[in-house]
Amino acid sequence: MDEEWLEFLITIAGQLSIAVENAILFSDLQQSNRELAEAYDATIEGWSRALDLRDKETEGHTRRVTEMTLRLAEAMGVSGEERVYYRRGALLHDIGKMGIPDSILLKPGSLTTEEWAIMRRHPSYAQAMLSPIPYLWQSLDIPYSHHERWDGSGYPRGLKGELIPLAARIFAVVDVWDALTSNRPYRPAWGEEEALAYIRDQAGKHFDPAVVNIFLENYPEWTKT
């Protein structure tokens, strides 16, 4: 074997060694990123459970609305990658209520005008709490905007129509549906037909009509699973 050929083989071997080392480093980095993402998501789930524990009357609400939001988003053609952000946003949709005093959040009767003004701050509190966390930037639409209304009468920004992020428009239907069909201190749960009629009636007012249509088309099938 001549010297030039030997040097060529040594060079190739060196390049292969570097490539293998880089592949190992990349694999290790991917594993670290996966583990970090899993840790973040476990923390998010812990936050949502803590809120459920604080407000016993809505216990289980977060889990139910998260599951149905993902189903509705999939039915509307939202990609799997985007649904990851929807899931985090749904889990954290009421995180801003951490800033609401117990005397208001847990009040068994009707809220006064002043108390409602405070309660309506919770989306803005959520934005303030979560926006410093880059990992959650793509998941802020639901916590910040799920109380906006299609006709512009919602809060905190009074957004109208398609100016409301799609994630929030999808979640709003699910959130109201679950609230109506659950027992609350101030009223018993509505029946299924009554709740469906309300959702249908609010298309074009509270809700995006396109989202309502997909919800009503798919809801009967979802109840079978």
TrEMBL record:
<keyword id="KW-0378">Hydrolase</keyword>
<dbReference type="GO" id="GO:0016787">
    <property type="term" value="F:hydrolase activity"/>
</dbReference>
<protein>
    <submittedName>
        <fullName>Phosphohydrolase</fullName>
    </submittedName>
</protein>
<dbReference type="InterPro" id="IPR037522">
    <property type="entry name" value="HD_GYP_dom"/>
</dbReference>
<dbReference type="InterPro" id="IPR052020">
    <property type="entry name" value="Cyclic_di-GMP/3'3'-cGAMP_PDE"/>
</dbReference>
<dbReference type="InterPro" id="IPR003607">
    <property type="entry name" value="HD/PDEase_dom"/>
</dbReference>
<feature type="domain" description="HD-GYP">
    <location>
        <begin position="36"/>
        <end position="225"/>
    </location>
</feature>
<dbReference type="InterPro" id="IPR029016">
    <property type="entry name" value="GAF-like_dom_sf"/>
</dbReference>
<dbReference type="Pfam" id="PF13487">
    <property type="entry name" value="HD_5"/>
</dbReference>
<dbReference type="InterPro" id="IPR006675">
    <property type="entry name" value="HDIG_dom"/>
</dbReference>
